[in-house]
Write a structure and sequence with these properties.
The protein has four helices and 13 strands. The chain has 320 residues and is mainly beta. It has a single domain, classed as Lipocalin. The protein has a ten-stranded antiparallel beta barrel with strand order 2-3-4-5-6-7-9-11-12-13. Strand 6 and strand 7 form a beta hairpin. It is globular and about 65 Å long. The N and C termini lie far apart (54 Å).
Length: 320
């Protein structure tokens, strides 16, 4: 077997709507367009080191509204090595996306922390890729693990100074019930994996800050479950991604790396078709997601490094 050094890519093309009609976006096809998350459908939860001496942390719960746009379609080509006279080429088809999130929180804590209503609290641009000709290579971090065909990717940049590559799989099929969200963990833990932190109380976790909105902060995914309710699903696609998969990861600028290290991210997007409540009406497209980014920094007054989960969940509808 003779292999040459991999050559450069074959270029990138951003397509007009007419050019992209016949392209296969696979499980990403229904995402194309603009999605709107209404106020108090989106929630941001994180426990951070804070000024409270007895507890050493502050639990931030911030309701938000969101605009998430997936367009236009982009095509990129990658050239691999020439093996036995055959060029190993790869074509990626994906969607550029832009996400903007604004707080709708009016609590004293939100205002004090700079997250009052109207403030933009997150901006992100990136690409979701459908990988149709994936090369099933072993995980370099765990060569003995079974090889999984990672057929989707998320590339993202965040103004705080983070770049993200998350790889994953698309899973199609409506489960027999609506209990497919799993649990979102919000409690900090030590880096050795224990969840019991000496001196930390349960008060902030159990005192519901937005019970009047139906939000249970102890498990944000419960809000996704209640929002979906008894709606009848006619189809469901889950995009399950993690920076722990394959060659994924997070890169941070030096200040973040030193002070608040964003170590890994895990997320699921559920693309749902809901049967119309009107007989004969068109299905309703709905997008729900749950995302956890683990941040590592020391507890207040201590050098002990803690993993602080940053959880966001939302339910969006496609704009007509």
């Amino acid at each position: 077997m003779n292999a040459s050094i991999p050559s450069l890519g074959t270029g990138i093309k951003v397509l007009s709507p007419s050019e992209s009609i016949d392209l296969d976006l696979g499980p990403l096809a229904d995402l194309k367009g603009t999605w709107i998350g209404k106020p108090f459908d989106g929630w941001n939860v994180i426990a951070v080191p804070g000024p409270q001496v007895t507890q050493g942390f502050t639990l931030e719960v911030i309701p938000y509204e969101e605009t998430l746009t997936f367009t236009p379609v982009v095509v990129a080509g990658n050239r691999g090595p020439v093996v036995d006279g055959v060029q190993e080429d790869q074509q990626l088809i994906g969607l550029l996306y832009e996400q903007t999130i604004k707080s709708v929180c009016t609590s004293d804590l939100c205002v004090k922390m700079g997250f009052g209503a109207g403030n933009e609290i997150h901006a992100e641009r990136g690409i979701l890729l459908n990988i149709t000709n994936f090369n099933s290579a072993p995980d370099p971090n765990n060569p003995s693990a079974p090889v999984t065909e990672l057929n989707i990717a998320r590339l993202a940049t965040v103004p705080h100074g983070n770049s993200i590559l998350a790889l994953g799989t698309a899973i199609t099929g409506v489960p027999p019930d609506h209990d497919f969200f799993g649990k979102a963990f919000i409690k900090p833990s030590t880096v050795d994996g224990s969840r019991i932190l000496p001196g930390y109380e349960e008060t902030q976790y159990n005192k519901q800050q937005f019970a009047d909105k139906g939000f249970n902060q102890t498990d944000p995914n419960l809000f996704l479950q209640s929002t979906l309710g008894a709606a009848q699903l006619t189809s469901l696609i889950e995009l399950k991604l993690s920076t722990k998969n394959g060659t994924g990861g997070i890169l941070n600028i030096p200040f973040i790396q030193k002070n608040v290290d964003a170590t890994d991210m895990h997320c699921s997007f559920w693309i749902e078709r809901l049967r119309s409540p009107v007989v004969g009406g068109p299905d309703i497209l709905q997008l729900q997601y749950s995302q956890t980014i683990n941040l590592v920094f020391p507890a207040t007054g201590s050098k002990q490094m803690i993993i602080w989960p940053h959880v966001t969940v939302n339910t969006l509808r496609k704009e007509k």
